[in-house]
Design a protein that fits this description.
Pfam families: K_trans, K_trans_C. The chain starts with 32 loop residues before the first helix and ends with a strand. The protein folds into two domains: 416 residues, Amino acid/polyamine transporter I (Up-down Bundle), CATH 1.20.1740; 183 residues, no CATH class. It is an alpha/beta fold. It has 26 helices and eight strands.
Length: 652
């Protein structure tokens, strides 16, 4: 199982690390254009494919309760435009993306920014962490639905272009999704480089399709006026309320945009949005509005009817490629959220593969990838239509939006020192709109909305179970290990214990207790190496720790001058490479030859017992998670031929 959380280093020694931890992930000075292109290929796929199904879903709700009258169409499009403007352009790009945890984004990163900013022990201190865990769990629910609904909505265009191929929609969508998840191991850097040009073509196509219809009837530009949305809500409140339940589909992807920030950075995302994505989305929604006003029969699939008949089949191909990219946005975000959760103690060790030498946020997590694939295929084969999936989509999105607003308000008060009038204005503008979206989607719980909520509750249960189980096992482990000082006194005064040449390095979660592998080696083999190094990995609540602050060295002093303690500090986006950290410790005076080191790991096997602290079902879940944690040898990048694993059993 994973090592329990480490205690902070106790005092200043050789190679003292500064208490201020900065980012090691500073981007090199280079052109922003490649990052903009990559962001287009990874970040904006989700929100960029919303025109495929957003307006179609609005006018299909409850058997067509939102009729395609001019007042309704203008009201809906005005709501869509101002929702995108307020939530994406103003809230996320104007405020939320500035709340980055040393370059990393996502609801869990925001939760930890707020968590470390509020007073320790207060009610807000525990609340923000709980909100972050649930927000991260909701994101995993979105990560299942987005690939299914996006790809399905694109492939369903075959029914418009070539109705005889309608029976191939679900099998073809399933094949595309399998292929998408299969190529994830190549990394978002390569995927984004390929997808970026495709998305440029996609957004330009969106813009051109919409522009043609806007030029044909420029009066539709009036829909951009906010008074149409206000009039719609005031004069037709019941219909507007129903429409809001689907209008939120136009802003799905905003949360993925924030979670993916660590892959490319804020500036490329802002440039891509305002220079290309936002204008083209606006034109396309206006074009769909004009089309529906001209011919109400087009509401069945207004997007594909924007194109002339000869262009519909090529548009289906392009839309399918775009929806593959839409899925990429949430998949990449899920990797980032999972790694953050693991490093912050809410998930067991995960195998994480770095896919880019330049961008630290570009990773691949195999276990998350294949779990998502399985869940997406189950959804696809169960719902079998994008219209049915749309009913399951909005609730989780709106809850995630509200959680982000709440956490940012806490962060703004505690860290940014906003005054209460500023916080109230922020909450009033964005919170009111998001609560409206949430209320409109409550009715969908029984019609598919339960699905993302079930996924979120399940993931949150896993996270909280792992965190609580670690606490219980750590307490039992520390009791079994015993204090380090008395053990070393016993070894020092025992002539029966032989000194053997070489250096032994023991990975251990703290300085206070004895590594189990060290204790077992002494008790059973009656030997101790000439030089002993105890290495503690400490995860710091920032994405990256620079090399000059990576290690803290502590000589335990006489009579333990042959025993050294090293704290290796990693951010939650750093890979815990222990040999590299020990090489850095040599510069701080640790005399160690990595070619002549024996690495010792303490492998803990956990078993359920009747001890209090957690229910039996949650203990069973923790036991399963512990058994399936990543292999510590590869996780810490230890040389297999020089590593010895000694086990122990703990009942908890």
């Amino acid at each position: 199982m994973a090592l329990p959380p480490a205690r902070p280093a106790i005092s200043a020694r050789r190679g003292v690390a500064s208490p201020h931890v900065t980012s090691a992930g500073t981007r090199p000075a280079r052109s922003v254009a490649p990052l903009v292109l990559g962001a287009l290929g990874v970040v904006f796929g989700d929100i960029g494919t919303s025109p495929l199904y957003a307006l179609q879903t609005v006018f299909a709700l409850d058997g067509g309760i939102v009729e395609p009258t001019s007042e309704n169409v203008y009201g809906v499009v005005s709501m869509v435009f101002w929702s995108i403007t307020l939530i994406v352009s103003a809230k996320y790009l104007g405020f939320i993306l500035r709340a980055d945890n040393e370059g990393e984004g996502g609801v869990m990163a925001l939760a930890h920014l707020a968590h470390r900013s509020v007073r320790f022990g207060g009610r807000r201190h525990a609340l923000v962490l709980v909100l972050g865990v649930f927000g991260g769990s909701l994101f995993f629910g979105d990560s299942l639905i987005t690939p299914a609904i996006s790809v399905l909505s694109a492939v369903e265009g075959l029914e418009v272009a070539t109705p005889s191929l309608g029976r191939l929609v679900v099998p073809l969508a399933a094949a595309i999704i399998v292929a998408l998840f299969a190529v994830q191991r190549f990394g978002t850097h390569h995927v984004g480089r390929f997808f970026g040009p495709v998305m440029v073509v996609w957004f330009l196509t969106l813009g051109v399709l919409g522009l043609v219809h806007v030029v044909a009837a420029p009066a539709v530009l009036a829909a951009l006026s906010p008074h149409h949305a206000w009039s719609f809500v005031l004069h037709r409140p019941a219909i507007a309320f129903v429409a809001m339940g689907a209008t939120v589909l136009a802003i799905t992807g905003a949360e993925a945009l924030y979670a993916d920030m660590g892959h490319f950075g804020r500036v490329p995302i802002v440039w891509a949005w305002f220079a290309l994505v936002f204008p083209c989305l606006t034109l396309n929604y206006l074009g769909q509005a004009q089309l529906v006003l001209r011919d109400s029969h087009e509401i069945e699939n207004p997007f594909f009817h924007l194109a002339p008949e000869w262009a519909r089949l090529p548009l289906v191909v392009l839309a399918t490629m775009a929806t593959i990219i839409a899925s990429q946005a949430v998949i990449s975000g899920a990797y980032s959220v999972a790694r953050q959760a693991e490093r912050l103690g809410f998930l067991p060790r995960l195998t994480v593969r770095q896919t880019s030498e330049q961008e630290g946020g570009q990773i691949y997590v195999p276990s998350v990838n294949w779990l998502l694939l399985g869940g997406v295929l189950v959804l696809l084969l169960t719902f079998r239509a994008s219209e049915r999936l749309a009913t399951a989509y909005g609730l989780a999105v709106t809850m995630d939006l509200m959680l982000t607003t709440t956490l940012f308000c806490v962060y703004a008060v505690a860290a940014l020192r906003w005054r209460w009038p500023q916080v109230a204005a922020f909450a009033l503008v964005f919170g009111t709109l998001e609560v409206g979206f949430f209320s409109a989607n409550i009715a969908k719980v029984l019609h598919g909305g339960w699905l993302p909520l079930t996924v979120a509750v399940s993931v949150a249960t896993v996270m909280t179970t792992w965190a609580r189980g670690r606490e219980l096992v750590t307490a039992r482990r520390e009791k079994l290990e015993g204090p380090l000082g008395p053990f070393l006194d016993e070894v020092h005064g025992n002539a029966k214990i032989l000194r053997v040449p070489g250096t032994a390095v023991f990975l251990h979660p703290n300085k206070a207790t004895t590594p189990l592998a060290l204790r077992e080696n002494v008790h059973f083999n009656h030997v101790i190496h000439d030089d002993v190094v105890i290495v503690t990995m400490e995860t710091v609540n920032v994405p990256h720790v620079p090399e000059d602050e990576r290690v803290v060295v502590d000589d335990l002093g006489d009579p333990y001058d042959h025993i050294t303690h090293v704290t290796a500090r990693f951010g939650f986006s750093d890979h815990p490479d222990i040999p590299v950290a020990l090489a850095l410790a040599r510069d701080e005076g640790v005399d160690v030859d990595l070619r002549d080191v024996t690495w010792f790991l303490s492998r803990i096997t956990v078993h359920r017992s009747d001890r209090p602290g957690m229910g039996r079902s949650r203990k069973w879940l923790f036991e399963v998670l512990a058994r399936n944690a990543a292999d510590p040898t590869s996780y810490f990048r230890l040389p297999i031929g020089q590593t010895v694993v000694l086990g122990a059993r703990i009942n908890f």
